[in-house]
Amino acid sequence: xxxxxxxxxxxxxxxxxxxxxxxxxxxxxxxxxxxxxxxxxxxxxxxxxxxxxxxxxxxxxxxxxxxxxxxxxxxxxxxxxxxxxxxxxxxxxxxxxxxxxxxxxxxxxxxxxxxxxxxxxxxxxxxxxxxxxxxxxxxxxxxxxxxxxxxxxxxxxxxxxxxxxxxxxxxxxxxxxxxxxxxxxxxxxxxxxxxxxxxxxxxxxxxxxxxxxxxxxxxxxxxxxxxxxxxxxxxxxxxxxxxxxxxxxxxxxxxxxxxxxxxxxxxxxxxxxxxxxxxxxxxxxxxxxxxxxxxxxxxxxxxxxxxxxxxxxxxxxxxxxxxxxxxxxxxxxxxxxxxxxxxxxxxxxxxxxxxxxxxxxxxxxxx
Length: 367
Fold this sequence. Notes:
- The protein has helices at residues 21-25, 38-52, 69-82, 93-106, 153-158, 161-183, 196-221, 227-247, 254-260, 270-285, 289-302, 318-330, 343-361, and strands spanning 11-14, 31-36, 57-62, 86-91, 109-114, 126-130, 136-141, 148-152.
- It is an alpha/beta fold.
- Helix 4 (93-106) links the parallel strand 4 and strand 5 (109-114).
- The strands form two sheets. A six-stranded parallel sheet has the order 1-8-5-4-2-3. A two-stranded antiparallel ribbon has the order 6-7.
């Protein structure tokens, strides 16, 4: 049995850490391409330049809005033309994924600076590529994780709280899905079996969410740094990412991807969809009422969706329900469960999860 555990070369988290970026990246070289949106370049470009000083040569590249092949190829071409030592991706998930793909295509180091903690994309060795119309094309996997991830908690703290909460929704799935993969000896994202370390990180992510998640949200609401907030930033960015990639999952993200198959405008964040998808996976697995109770109460306490109405999908037609159920059965995640997942199973899990969320919204519970 082959087991693989992967991680970024180095992970650095600290308050105002961008001021120290020069000493963190100098071992990789002196020439970098900085990829960021126009707004992030305006907000943080000077801070980053001040942290680097005159010893580094930086080529600024404005992200053009979609992590598509066209954007990846454009950024990679600039990196090659400038002969940079590394590509720095500073921003949210699509900037991060584009920086990873472009850096790998150009054969340079990849440095990730997340400006929100809305997902665990920063640490992973994969990227999601979208079509120009915003629909998902595919996930691509790289030979290695980013060389460096730098998380400035001051920056994360000042982002809208909704992003932090969405990151908790994404992180919530790590342990719930991870239990399935671990118990069934299924392959992780590296094509090998999970390690004890990866499963321990999945469980740690969940435990920290339950103990510190609400307090972290309250601190972020008030734009103050606390130990609770610092812990949850680490959960969202590092622990969830390592657990997800090195351990693998089950059907925790499956309904989210099924929602993406609908011809509807996406109005919610990744982790907001994943929170309901995770509850669906618990219903599918027949998890204990007290376990579902804990998850639903946590989600509602921090403001994560537990109903279709909160995802602006309470008007789904039966045809759309059928499309979602079909999509669920065609994905890889359900194959990690020790039973066949049918369309009826997928439909039942979604409608029951929605009903459970409504039950709790009305002050009742499963217990």
